[in-house]
Amino acid sequence: GAALSESSSEQAPDERRVLPQAIVIGVRKCGTRALLEFLGMHPQIKIAPDEVHFFDKDDRYERGLEWYRQQMPMSSPGQLTMEKSPAYFISPTAPGRIQSMNHTVKLLVILRNPITRVISDYTQTFTKKRSRNESCVPIEDLVIDSFSGEVNLRYKPIDISIYHQHWARWMMKFPRHQIHIVDGDRMIVDPLSELIQVERFLGVKPFLTTDNFMFNATRHFYCMRKPGRATEHCLGFSKGRTHPQLKPTVHQKLKDFFRLHNNLFYQLSGREFHWDA
Ligand code: A3P
To answer: What is the pTM of this model?
Structure first.
């Protein structure tokens, strides 16, 4: 009876670990953690707690699919298993490797304004460096090449934000309908509308409602109210950092630079965003 199921750590008899049927492939700093955690509130979705980095890191990929399966959470037959590793999006090998695991796997990619993404990426590195008392270079000196005065393509956060070049590799391996794009800027201000679209894409029953999302005025972000829990759950303090303000001239240079790349992405993906407004 009740006493027995409580003491057996609530594991249903038909639970086991399976390879993921859906993967969040990126993009770094666009809200990948929030997306996965939000989806984890759904009773039909089980999420891997950590980034697995199986398809982008050769030494992990060499461990084989059985190792990968072991990194997945327990799930029941009616449930969907998911993981997120944002580095997959920019990895040259990940698309082919994921396709050879399962060519019908569903892929999710969350994007935000590419300039905001660069600033968020810089802020993450800056915060880490400062905590180690290392010297920090102002963002303007990294995004602009001091010799040419042009946008610095060798700065990795810039390269990551050129979405179309990475997107093109996925399009060579997967049909367009197998990848769903989540609007990360929108998910910050209206998570439910984005999550409803994801539920539909994944083919799970509509479950999430406004009750699952509570705006936290101190954090300036939505936090989760998980089913059966009284208290709300927010992401860690590494999510939602304060961003530095770019010098207007540098901001303008980045806007001019990304306009063409953004338009190429809109064309290739068939999804229009308003990043250049
Ligand atoms: P910032 O910390 O720069 O604001 P990722 O999980 O891919 O690293 O993305 C981190 C970003 O998720 C954060 O970037 C934040 O803007 C965004 N985010 C979206 N929804 C959030 C939420 N509910 N709580 C905290 N951060 C959220």
So the answer is: 0.95
